[in-house]
Amino acid sequence: xxxxxxxxxxxxxxxxxxxxxxxxxxxxxxxxxxxxxxxxxxxxxxxxxxxxxxxxxxxxxxxxxxxxxxxxxxxxxxxxxxxxxxxxxxxxxxxxxxxxxxxxxxxxxxxxxxxxxxxxxxxxxxxxxxxxxxxxxxxxxxxxxxxxxxxxxxxxxxxxxxxxxxxxxxxxxxxxxxxxxxxxxxxxxxxxxxxxxxxxxxxxxxxxxxxxxxxxxxxxxxxxxxxxxxxxxxxxxxxxxxxxxxxxxxxxxxxxxxxxxxxxxxxxxxxx
Length: 272
Known about the structure:
- The chain is an alpha+beta fold.
- The chain has helices at residues 20-30, 50-60, 77-88, 101-108, 111-114, 130-138, 150-159, 205-212, 236-244, 253-266, and strands at 2-3, 6-8, 15-16, 38-39, 46-47, 65-66, 73-74, 90-91, 96-97, 118-119, 126-127, 186-187, 192-194, 201-202, 222-223, 232-233.
- The model has no long low-confidence stretch (mean pLDDT 82).
């Protein structure tokens, strides 16, 4: 069998740099055989078929790709990386071990590994996740989308979700309720402005008003599409974050990114 510019006997492993004819003369004179075509990744053994080679490497743990944390070997780099993620909570690229799968997943889905590939269609600001994009638009902070906020975004999403995959069908909903704290909201005993809904204390009336008119105490507009989960959310950013976290197992992080991009760029109906 030829390896580079040399040829080797499969019986005595003598090498013949002169070429194929020299190896053939040696085999005819000695009765030796040509080397098998399939060589183990980690030892010098050769086999007559890829199947035999694979069975050998599987039995002897002789695959090319070795785990960074244990002596397990794998036939491909992707399978080795998957093993390190699932069995060791380890990121080989960053050489970091995490306390659990959730922490590792958050790290892998962070800007460190994903960059900023989700772009706002209105101002072209780039974000790492769909949650970042939606929060940017939903809070009314996009300079290219004046007037777009939680309420208008819900109406748009609802129009793309006729089957109620993630939106609640609120027949009597006319928009977010606006609150204004009165003097009676000041709690002299506690020394601050108190939210009568959750009893949280604020130093200034403006802080209490911002809290009252935030999504915290607004109606739930969205629900998790996983019927076994049942969680509801007041903002689109909150449900997108829930799905991106993969906490209820309904969909994968990448599917959420694609779903948001399809909705804002192509006008497709919502699906995960």
